[in-house]
């Protein structure tokens, strides 16, 4: 209010406050949803030794996620000598918070599916190995695209250009490498951050489409085909 939003009403502040409060309380509920059942299953002896290690890692990651969230919000309350007029959290901490959440979600989903659905025993053909490698590469590309979105959000980079596929009147903006040293542009220049996010997004959709087309040439179980098709559908919707 003192730095930027001088005309904010109490009702508008309460809306933001309740969003933040709900997010924190929901995070604590998620933590309890991990830790309490884990302790119960552990006590009853229902967890195998490998699963105990995985459960400990997941519970630790939940706690780490909460710590990262506090560390991120803390950066938004610190005085910054170069941007007194725009209170915002660090884009680096925001990306770390989002990245750890994606890792936690993916690991939880993978663990759950591993227990619920038995793994298919397929012959390790050359095509199948290539499909696995390509799927892992596509996963890494999607993860990187999501992290780049955190930098877009943290820098309000989405406000710089609102036209597509060109950025303004140009394919490559003039201020793409305005910061020095050059590497700083990737993480701190709003124009470069938005440009990179666009390129990564297009690359992700292209990679998912290629993965789908390649999978059509290989005899796969019905469940795997459904997963690949769903992946393409979600990528197009995203």
Automatic annotation (TrEMBL):
Phylogenetic placement of the source organism: Eukaryota, Metazoa, Chordata, Craniata, Vertebrata
Catalytic reaction list: Fe(II)-heme o + 2 A + H2O = Fe(II)-heme a + 2 AH2
Gene this protein is translated from: Cox15
Metabolic or biological pathway, per its Swiss-Prot or TrEMBL entry: Porphyrin-containing compound metabolism; heme A biosynthesis; heme A from heme O: step 1/1
Keywords for the protein's UniProt record, in alphabetical order: Heme biosynthesis, Iron, Membrane, Metal-binding, Oxidoreductase, Transmembrane, Transmembrane helix
Bilayer topology term: Multi-pass membrane protein
Protein name per the record: COX15 protein
Pfam family membership, one: COX15-CtaA
GO cellular component: mitochondrial inner membrane
